[in-house]
Amino acid sequence: MKEEATLVIIKPDGLKKSLTGNILSRLSESKLKIIGARILKVDIALANEHYRHLQKEPFYPELTKYITGQLHGENRVMALVYFGEGAITKVRELAGATNPEEADPVSIRGAFGRILTTGLFENVIHASSSNEESEREIKLWFGPDEIVQELYPVKEINPESLKRRVWK
Ligand code: DAT
Ligand code: MG
User: Fold this and answer.
1) What is the domain range of residue 43?
2) pLDDT at 157
């Protein structure tokens, strides 16, 4: 099996319900390596970009409310990059089916997910589903210096032109 990287996002319900430890334990069964991890707030621009292929779906407005934390009063998510042989398939298996009611009860979504009365699948984690998707998503959620492995080609830009915050 080929070594590959995959993006996992523990969604706002996962943080709100203090499920982070449980989810990381489940994912560690894969024996994959974590090569990046961030806690961040998801704004609407990031949500729209991440889910851009679903913009025509009837559940799309609820989905962006979910990932930006408006359903849970909790706008933090935890984003992780897992790396290793067959990472995409291994993580998708541990995650379980998209619909938490159809997911294996032993899977993360089966154990911790639910369907809202609006019909939205509140399924606790995101996991990339293909190589193209994982590359697009990892580049969206992480910069090259936030991952401890050289995954994709990089370029250098002139730091003098970059305004950013540093510790004082
Ligand atoms: P996955 O997250 O398993 O890759 P997806 O990319 O098709 O599934 O959809 C993204 C998210 O949108 C999914 O995690 C939950 C929500 N969703 C997908 N299909 C849905 C549906 N039919 N009804 C309600 N929510 C849905
Ligand atoms: Mg998907």
Assistant:
1) 3-146
2) 87
Q: Is the CB of 64 under 6 A from ligand 1?
A: no
Q: Encoding tokens for residue 111?
A: 């154990």
pTM of the full predicted structure? 0.96
Q: What is the pLDDT of residue 1?
A: 83
Q: What is the mean pLDDT of residues 80-98?
A: 98
- Residues around ion ligand 2, judged by CB within 5 A, are 129
Domain assignment of residue 97, yes or no: yes
CATH number at residue 131: 3.30.70.141
Residue 158 covered by a domain:
no
Please name the residue that has the structure tokens 């994959």: 32
CA of 38 relative to ligand 1 center, distance in Å: 23
157 assigned to some structural domain: no
Averaged confidence pLDDT in the chain: 96
DSSP 116: -
The residues assigned a catalytic role are: 126
Which one, of 52, 103, 150, lies nearest residue 113 by Cα?
103
